[in-house]
Amino acid sequence: MTELTLPTARQRPLDPPDEVTRLREQAPLHRMTYADGHLGWLVTGYAAARAVLASPHFSNRPETQHSPISRRGLALRKDFRVPPGFFLRMDAPEHTRFRRLLTGQFTVRRMKMLEPRIEEITAACLDAMEAAGPSADLVEKFALPIPSLVICELLGVPYEDRDQFQADTKVLATLDSKADDAVAALKQIMGYLYELVQRKRKVPGDDLLSGLIESGELNDDDLAGVGVLLLIAGHETTANMLGLGTYALLTNPDQLAIMRDDPSAVDNGVEELLRYLTIIHLGPIRSALEDVEIEGITIKAGESVAIHLPAVNRDAARFPDGERLDLTREAGGHLTFGHGIHQCLGQQLARAEMRIAYPALLRRLPGLRLAVTPEEVPMRSDMSIYGVHRLPVTW
After folding, report:
1. Model pTM above 0.85
2. Domain 18-394's class?
């Protein structure tokens, strides 16, 4: 079996690297050399990815894992430990405790109740764009502020503090950030949330952090860690889906027309964009706690497994003609939000934001188009979450 390193260079901005696509067509698992020389695995097949994500025999703790790419940030700090409350990087039973506390905060019913407010925020962004138009950076004026404001209101984080936490998030998400800079950014955002938690203990509000404080089950360190995780995930992921999704629609006008003109197609269209774009492009990573057989191959205890979600979500065995964007396809079952115990907690919120934002944008600005050539749009290949750095548009 030929050993390889993780291909990251994209030949086309909306497609996984051609080499990864070819690997998927050959087999679902591949031997891969990680950045530090560790010999582990790359998963490119849908069934294999689901099996790994569902198995209790794989760990999500960072100290068990190896990075598939060279990066200068936290991954290279041997003294780095996951902060308290970062339940995403925990295994059961620690993960179970945090997940149980938070599940009730992200129910479909609660997200449904948030929809009128999401509609108000979206309309306000569009009002501001129209008033300042007829051109804008869609990331700055639309894709980033909508989920940022929503998650701030949900958590109880003052929106006027966004410049600092967004700057810290950018440092943490940049693959080439220096280790000391990444540590400083994390300390800064953790310190900010810690102080906010302490203020809410004295003056609680009608928000998620205040509700968690009231439960009495978490200390301030845990609460700050939970807050950081939800704040970063709550605005960074959906912002990139809104930006990259709009780019995809503007470069596929037949699909744009479906999203704009057919209300019955919106829910499924959002799922297809999630599948087709898959902004989590460098993982997730798991490490085997014992020997595990996946698709007839034995993954030995201690070996890391990197799942290439963009390739997995285009596996023809699960999504026929998966290389094509088709908002009418039955796109459910994609792994963009993960699978198993670590499946994304905020997925219903992200769906609500996209279901509202895409059609509102396209209907309000029917002449929306790129203000530059598609090739001139700067892509986030240098970030842990894929998307567009900027999206210059006009109407």
Report:
1. yes
2. mainly alpha
